[in-house]
Amino acid sequence: MTGTETHPEPVSPPETTGPHPPDEPVLRVDDLHVTFPGTGRGGDVRAVRGLSYQVRRGEILAVVGESGAGKSAAALAVPGLLPDHARVSGSIRLNGRELLGLDERRLAEVRGRHVSMVFQDPLAALTPVRTVGSQLAEAVRLHQPRTTRRQARERAVELLRRVGIPDADRRADAYPHELSGGMRQRVMIALATANNPDVILCDEPTTALDATVQAQILDLLAAVRRETGAAIVVITHDLGVVAEIADRVLVMYAGRPVETGTVPQVYRRPRMPYTMGLLAALPRADTAAPALPAPIGGTPPDPAAPPPGCPFAPRCPIALPHCRTEPPALLPVDQPSAAGHRVACHRADDITARHWGAADLYPSPALPGNAAPTPRDRRPVVLDVDDLAKHHPLYRGAILRRRAGAVRAVDGISFDLREHETLALVGESGAGKSTVLTEILELTRPERGRITVLGHDTGALSPEERFALRRDLQVVFQDSSSALDPRMTVAEIVAEPLRVHRHPRRHLPHRVREVLALVGLDDSHARRRPAQLSGGERQRVGIARAIALRPRLLLLDEPVSALDVSVRAGVLALLADLRSRLGLSCLLVAHDLAAVRHVADRTAVMHLGVIVEIGDTGSVFTDPRHPYTRALLSAVPVPDPDAARRNRTVLAGDPPDPADPPSGCRFRTRCPRFPTLAETDRHTCVTRPPRLRPLGDADHRVACHHA
Question: Could you give the CA distance from residue 137 to residue 129 in angstroms, rounded to a whole number?
Fold first, then answer.
């Protein structure tokens, strides 16, 4: 049982929630504190410090903030899922009944029946050795013991069908690892709604999902709200997601609420500099004239030693001396009602009087000067990929293995990358983007086609030539935690490629300091190990290691996907600056189209192993010609309450199996235009694979019969 402080009058929970007044909050949290006892020299970690909020039936409340703000700890406190050593105080009332202080048996009666949770990682939350149908049936029978096994099975299939999983009867017998990421998240939502709970808590439900799958999940949550009337609390760091589905938003920083109100109130007239910083740091894909997002300087405070005054004061661009000594109270901005706009900031009145907006406090970093004034067609080709294919064989039989087909990860793509240029490969998971990067990094003869790196055909390289070429070809990986050796210091990590390529030993310390300074780190970071760094600092170390040898070509594999919005803005600005100052050519793999909009010169859209559209980033984003590109762009959340309500193209289902792609156009099974075409046009799509062809601008090419 979660450790709690004693309450004067603990209230026993009802067996059922019963009728509930529509105007009363379903869930009410008052003055919640969550503390984790410290170990060794560290003091107690005060994860949540005085959080209060309420959610009514049919309402969606979004809780936002950077990592370490206390969002997840506050959510886990509601159903009593915090570890035993956690100290929890305050009040959590569900339909007027107190939950804090209940024993484990009574909390178990509440979980799943009245309060349920959708976790961030469904693969870790689902039992891997049981089918998803059996797990759903168990959730039903646990709270409805009179239900027979057959009825529970029927209910499980019905739940899978309700959350949009095709062929629900068959999928109910699948194990979690046999489902895609989007399907697994749908199963989690089905589990959460199995007993029609009063409150659903969603912890980062769309993190790490493709834009198209994310759009499906957001639509599904909105449908669950409409159909069940449940109150939903969504924890996220993506303000675009908040604008898409939430009614109200609560901004947390260092364990405290710093601003709350309706989504239009907070987005259109934010009064807290931290909220304004989050909005300024978010890249947008829907702008015609992209400006680099503005990072928030500094880092959040140590939760074991929070500052005495406003916790955001050390990072605030308009902080006054008394901001560092006096903690601000959460006070109304426009009206005194509890549901109105409230902010905890000493300078809220100044922000109102001076009409300061996010851009005033956090101006966009200046775009670096054009490092390549020479027209593209006159610049040398740094990387040339011609008809590249990579098929992974499939085998059957445990003893006598027989080939049973192949996964067509990459199936004949061609593109080139010029000097001082950034090309982005975008698309859903399984499109083949990372496989392209791997084939280039191997510097060997590909299965089919040809790869030319800096004028060298990789299929004709000797071992000595391959080693020498690696000096000019470097990579930045997605997961900095696993890419950096935890036993080495930062200085040793950055110096390693210099030693391998025989950089003069006496010049190593100077070069390491020089490279760390380029990425915004100093000598104090050089002595630390990766575990002592934040996520953004680790990614900067990975970039420093990659540029230490002054490469000409840099490969970037999802370099900002796992970072907070404010840290991501800083890394994007750093990459843009380094590309300009060092004259780098970059191949970027990403599914974050908003980030791509700000850093890429050209964009290639991949679907099921082939390129369906390629061209200048401005043309591809403002005038997309392929239905798949349009669907990707329309699925990107926009941090604007008005723009978020735009019409979106939500693709049905998951991409086809790359081991058995559709004939003709590989997108036709999901194409929203295909059913509306004439019979002869549909026949063309079914029988003829489309080829990339120029449309208007010769550099903008599209693989669609009806572009």
Answer: 15
